[in-house]
Specification:
2 copies of one chain form a homodimer.
Chain A: E1 7-9, E2 19-21, H1 24-33, E3 41-45, E4 51-60, E5 63-73, E6 81-85, H2 90-103, E7 107-112, H3 123-136, E8 144-145, E9 149-150, H4 151-156, E10 163-167, E11 186-190, H5 198-206, E12 210-213, H6 222-236
Parallel strand pairs in A: 1-3, 6-7, 6-11, 7-8, 7-9, 10-11, 10-12
Antiparallel strand pairs in A: 2-5, 3-4, 4-5
Chain lengths: 241, 241
């Protein structure tokens, strides 16, 4: 069947004939903002069961119920890739989260570095941004956005089985090819405006699970570097192959 | 010498001892907004002669003069890559121009397609945006932004020696590798929200100089697709190798 235009992410199992309740916010969006009602077709996904076409069977001001009719798309999980980035200005941080969700990251980890401009983030707002990106781009998976964590503490507890691809802004030569890298769990690390401090750089260089990579001869903003690094990783090791 | 923090793009030759006049807008920015004056060091570039460190020797309300001291960075031209894209919402169009300038495109060509939302663009505003991206990212080259042109007319007069890499949103399978593509002049073509119309798609498919490419199994917004396609091209055929 045709995929429904309105897409909602729900926290509920999806399956044949499954009844799915709406939250007050979803009911408000669907019935007041979009002016839909009983009989309307909506696409639902929950991050596990793919996309389902569902029909509104009950509509109220603060809730409602849908019934799943059939699966419209299978579940598409991203590869085991995390994005670690230092939050920058609000709209560019939003942008990084949106692009990481679109390009296929499994987890988004904001880190505080010595030169990070922001001391705190609104984790709930960034998580909502990742969800919105999935809703708008026909995704069936929403990456988890974690709380802001100091880079030092993140590296202290790091599982060395997950390798880190470090977009090292001091390497302005030609980008190494990523084709030779080993498959498996990875994280991409993007620094803040102003880059990493010298102690941070020394620690990263010394870690055996960290691979520095250049992103070409031009200096890229952090949000551009995030897009470019995820793209290169996806085409070399991810599910774009 | 250390690279100056303030960077200006000028339309004037740069060389040893060269005197460079400022426009009224640049004088306003430098002397009123940034509160600089005689003796201040500024980085200048003109798109041809690299970056030069210059010193303010005369400051006035509507003008001023600098003298070039020495070259701080060589000229870095992008490869012969154009980006053709259908303008979308204002902030995302701005974003595409900024990212194309950062990632290294030589020319940016907005096209009108059957499903293009905007009927017109502010070419001067987009050109200023490309210049600002170069100024802020230590670039020495500013890609030309052309006027909006209908896709049909662009293809009618196309030089077949320049191949077109078409980000075909109907190809949602794995991205083909770009490594096998021939070097030479290229243009990347990104469609509007809603994609190309069936007649447009049929024409693109029939053109011998057009190569369709997939950007992975997820549906990408036009601005994300532009970033990803430029990145893949740069790492396969451009100056990121």
């Amino acid at each position: 069947m045709d995929r429904a235009k309105i897409r909602l992410c729900v926290d509920h199992p999806l399956g044949p004939g499954q009844a799915v309740p709406l939250t007050p916010e979803q009911a408000h969006y669907l019935f007041s903002v979009m002016r839909e009602g009983p009989g309307a077709r909506v696409a639902l996904f929950n991050g596990r069961d793919g996309e389902w076409t569902a029909e509104v069977v009950a509509a109220a001001k603060k809730g409602g119920t849908l019934t799943c009719l059939g699966q419209a798309a299978p579940q598409l999980d991203p590869p085991d890739l995390w994005l670690i980035f230092a939050p920058i200005k609000k709209e560019r941080t939003d942008f990084i989260v949106e692009k990481a969700a679109e390009l296929g990251c499994a987890r988004i980890v904001p880190v505080q570095t010595e030169f990070t401009n922001s001391q705190r983030i609104r984790q709930d707002r960034l998580q909502a941004h990742a969800l919105e990106a999935a809703e708008q781009c026909l995704g069936t998976f929403v990456p988890e956005v974690t709380d802001l964590v100091p880079l030092r503490r993140l590296l202290d507890g790091w599982d060395p089985a997950r390798r880190i691809l470090w977009a090292d802004e001091s390497l302005v030569g030609p980008a190494e090819t990523l084709a030779g890298l080993a498959p498996g769990p990875w994280a991409i690390l993007i620094g803040p405006e102003g880059g990493f401090s010298e102690p941070e750089r020394a620690r990263l260089r010394a870690l055996p699970f960290v691979t520095p990579v250049s992103l070409g001869p031009r200096i890229l903003r952090a949000d551009t570097a995030a897009c470019a690094a995820i793209t290169l990783w996806q085409s070399a090791l991810g599910d774009w192959r």
